[in-house]
Amino acid sequence: MATVEIISFGFLHAPAPEADVVLDLRRAFRDPHVDPRMRQLTGRDRLVRRAVLRTRGIRQLLGATTRQVQAYASGPSVGRIVIGSGCAGGRHRSVVVADQLARRLRRRGHTVTVTHRDLHLPVVQR
């Protein structure tokens, strides 16, 4: 079984990390940042997690990415697969998707590490 490293990040803080797969969540999925109740929260908070997971298409993206990792893992020379999960500020969508993807992959037997690169940074003013 392959080892999977998942890195959540914000495109507005620094470039995407080098990865086998980068999920760009900025345009296609609802941004909790626009809701003042969630702006200062993170993807670790229940309200944000629910908002992201209830966004149309997110669960399908998680399923497709899980299948993509499985395909990479079946290759002849894979040892480590790196997945980047990015949104604007790296505090909401990217965190939820990274954590949920890790959960799914662990259930399938992968060893998974998750790093939230920008979670500790202040909310991006936009």
From TrEMBL:
TM ranges: none
The name this protein goes by in its record: ATPase
Signal sequence extent: none
Lineage: Bacteria, Bacillati, Actinomycetota, Actinomycetes, Kitasatosporales
Pfam families the record matches: PapZ_C (PF22740)
Domain RapZ C-terminal: 3-120
